[in-house]
Amino acid sequence: MYSPALPLTGWIFDTYPTSGGMVVWIVDAEGKSHRLVDPFQPSFYAAGPVAALRQLAADLSRMRLAAPVGMTRRQEFWTGEPRDVLEFILLDPEQQPALLRQLAVPRPGITLYDCDLAPALTYCHVRKIFPLAKVTVLQTGVGGRGSGVGGGGQTFRSPAPSPRPLAPDAAELRYQVEGSAWDLEYPEPPLRLMALTGQGDEQGRGAPLGKLRSLTISCDGETTTLDEGDPETLLAELNRLIRRFDPHVIITDWGDAFLVPALLGLARRTDTPLEFDREVVRRRIRSAGRSYFSYGRVVYQAPSYPFFGRWHLDSRNSFILKETELAGLLELSRLSKVPVQKMARASPGSAISMMQLDRALTDGILIPWKKGEPERWKTAWDLLVADKGGLVYQPITGLYEGVAEIDFASMYPAMMVHHNISPETVDCACCPDNAAPEIGYSTCRRREGLVTRTLRPILLRRQALKRLRGVSIGPARERYDHRQTALKWILVTCFGYLGYKNARFGRIEAHETVTAYAREKLLTARALAEACGFRVLHAIVDSMWIQKAGATEAEIRDLCRAIREAVGIDINLEGIYKWVSFLPSRVNPALSVANRYLGAFRSGELKLRGIDLRRSDTPPLIAEAQQRMVEILAQADDLAGFAARIPTVLEVFVEYAWRLREGQVRLTDLTIKRTVSKEAGEYKTNSQIGLASRQMADRGVAVHPGERVRYVITDADAPNAEARVRAIPFLAPDTPYDTGKYLELLCRAAETLLWHHGYDCGRLLRILAERGVGVSRSVP
Fold first, then answer.
1. FRET label pair with 548: which of 40, 364, 499, 568, CA 20 to 30 Å apart?
2. What 3-state DSSP class applies to 387?
């Protein structure tokens, strides 16, 4: 393979393990890709009795997985004190999984550190680089690290040589880095993008189903569509276009779940190598991903198909890419030292976790392999006091005008920095007088916490990016917005990781300390608002909705300044509503619901929470109808204007009801999309989602827990359960739909908007009857 001449200037494009070291891809200023191999053996550490350490060193050396270097001192996370540990080097980064399998064998008295860190992270840390860094690559004559070096009075020698030892004169790479990962402005490599979209037999559960029928390729303004008829021709043309355009980034739609495995299957059947990768790679086709339970719901993650020497970004398998586009993805990759393809498929929480690990490495802190800090013992009363979460005032149900919304800025992460809340600083013995309100946990004043050190620069960076967004226009403004949004998402997740039971740097007492301070600050904010004559209509964790007759914007901003001075956290005016509607519970209309409201700001922006068009299981036609009705009401400047527009809203309501009654809708616009929580055979009742899942399974289409099924209600009350719904892949042009059921959904959408003016579903149905919109059970 081509070996580039050094020195070489360009951008760090990708890094991943290879035998004996790391592959590093560099993209130069002309867009040419260069593959380098850097000898690299990451370190890890073990603590314990000398005899146990000797046995561990002998075992790992005999297995040719790792070699002991010698005793050294590193900082222990919880105490902050230095600890004597035995340093090892992993002889081959590719063998890390095998090493972890051996280390998982119980060894009494041994504590392990740093052993499972991603090789890309440790490589970037040791070489002082980061993804997308602009560098000049040099080469040194420094050799790899050997075994048998004594230290601290103990010598640990390897009884067997490494099968792939680094020669004393092995040439390691050295980098001269331009700038820092934290620079607000930075040069970007000249990347060429190619988009691939595949069509299957059916467009069923989101991802195409069945065989690949056609492939659309777009690059540099050119679009080519290839039919599957002759697989060899399709693959040959795809390879030709890849060679011609030589893209750095291939963006797909459903690439991980459908397109790439489908193309790999064609390549295998026709014995035609695909040229997605820049180096020869043997691939295994995986059709099933994994389902897992997270925050009360089942989530499905498709299998991953990264490319080697290029990036494969699946727009349907990347939350970060969807929410922040490429600019936000690159922002998080640079800061977290996670390679771009891996970052694209990871959660924002993974980014903040990797940033904490990187900070720990920088500060010389030992990173425990498995969390060993248990939750401290609590009495039932202690648990009742501490385990409360954020403070929520149930809204006063009604329709209001002139309401202001004020929000704390990044409240939880800002408090974690302001009060130095980190697992190792909470409930310290040295600062008992610095106690959190109500629960009494102290926070350390002498030692700054790891979480605090990680979050502070992120908060400052997001503020700077928001300022730059405010003074920019066009594409520059969008780019700054995507970057600050990416940081917003990792700040949102950082609090949850404090209490996550398996988080390396997690501790429930730190989590409880944050919520205790949050409750106090919201109570203080409410008291100050009421003292200034405002009525608090609603408050939830970090936001308040306040109202005062005749209050000016300046008066509200003065209140924000007073709250900021009292609690030490920024609070800002989100906006003043022309009107806002706090809605009751659908189950019990006598009760209000904290997260179900809608309103129109004076700026023209809408804020919608918990209503039909925000729900993923609302049929597109119903969401469209509600959107049109909301837009009419958004034109109102006050409550009188709201009431005056109700007749126009009702006209839209009747229009959509007529369309349903007369069959003037597409079946796909009636699709209900819901997430499967179990395997099809595990549904014991004939629920709609269970019926649709079984229809898919009976026809050989696997739907995994966490995936979504899409179906149309054909006859909700049919005696034959199988006739009640029809899964989307099996719709026919003459498939009927249940008019009455969809009219009921339409009525509920209108009721949500007009509830406070007395329009419930019963009244809305009477209006339809008066207009001659009768209800038949189904429409063909």
1. 568
2. coil
Residue 508 lies in a domain: yes
Query: Is 226 in contact with 215 (CB distance < 8 Å)?
Result: yes
- Does 336 fall in a domain? no
- State phi, psi for 131 to the nearest 5 degrees: -55, 140
22-52: buried (b, 16+ CB within 10 Å) or exposed (e) per residue?
bbbbbbbeeeebbbbbbbbbbbbbbbbeeeb
Contact 194, 247 (CB under 8 A): yes
Distance separating alpha carbons of residues 496 and 500, to the nearest angstrom: 6
CATH number of the domain to which 407 belongs:
3.90.1600.10
So what's the pLDDT on residue 778?
Answer: 52
Instruction: Specify the amino acid at residue 94.
Output: E
Q: Is 579 helix (H, G, I), strand (E, B) or coil?
A: strand
Q: Residue 529 is part of which domain span?
A: 385-610
Query: Is 447 inside a domain boundary?
Result: yes
- The position carrying tokens 């050295």 is 174
Claim to verify: residue 654 and residue 576 sit in the same structural domain: no
Query: Buried b / exposed e across 734-755, counting CB within 10 Å, b at 16+?
Result: eebbbbbbbbbbbbbbbbbbbb
Count the Cβ atoms, other than its own, within 10 Å of residue 447: 16
Is 175 in a helix, a strand, or coil? strand
Q: Which amino acid is at 133?
A: A
Say whether both 550 and 443 belong to one domain.
yes
- Tell whether the model's pLDDT for residue 148 goes beyond 70: no
Instruction: Give per-residue pLDDT as tens, 727-774.
Output: 998 999 899 999 999 999 999 999 999 999 999 999 999 999 999 886
pLDDT digit string, tens, across residues 495-548: 887 876 667 888 889 999 999 999 999 999 999 999 999 999 999 999 999 999
Same domain, 597 and 712: no
Q: Has residue 48 been placed in a domain?
A: yes
Q: What's the length of the chain?
A: 780
State what percent of residues in the chain have pLDDT above 90: 77
Query: Cβ distance 578 to 601 under 8 Å?
Result: yes
Average pLDDT over residues 82-94: 97
pLDDT digits (tens, 9 = 90+) for 259-284: 999 999 999 999 999 999 999 888 87
Contacts of 529 (CB under 8 A, 6+ apart): 536, 544, 546, 559, 563
Per-residue pLDDT for 83 more than 80? yes
Helix axes 348-362, 319-336, angle to 10 degrees: 0
Question: Can you give 408-452 as a three-state secondary structure string?
Answer: ECCHHHHHHHHCCCCCCCECCCCCCCCECCCCCCEECCCCCCHHH
Report the number of distinct structural domains present in the chain. 3
How far apart CA 13 and CA 35 sit, in angstroms, is 10
Residue 757 DSSP one-character state: G
Place of tokens 């090892």: 88
For 601-637, the pLDDT digits (tens) are: 999 999 999 999 999 999 999 999 999 999 999 999 9
**What are the CA-CA distances from residue 534 to residues 319, 350, 526, 537 (Å)?**
39, 41, 9, 9
How many beta carbons lie within 10 A of that of residue 364, not counting itself? 10
Residue with tokens 């990768």: 277
Residues 472 and 583 in one domain: yes
Question: Would you tell me how many other CB atoms lie within 10 Å of the CB of residue 285?
Answer: 14
**Residue 557 and residue 657 share a domain:** no
Is the per-residue pLDDT at 719 higher than 70?
A: yes
**Rg of the chain in Å (alpha carbons):** 30
Which CATH number is 106's domain given? 3.30.342
In the structure encoding, which two tokens stand for residue 513, read together? 């300390």
pLDDT for 660-703, tens place per residue? 999 999 999 999 999 998 888 889 899 999 999 999 888 888 78
**For helices 450-470 and 474-499, angle between their N-to-C axes, nearest 10 degrees:** 160
Cα angle 713, 708, 202; round to 5: 75
What is the pTM for the complete model shown? 0.90
- What is the pLDDT at residue 588? 92
Cα-to-chain-centroid distance, residue 726: 32
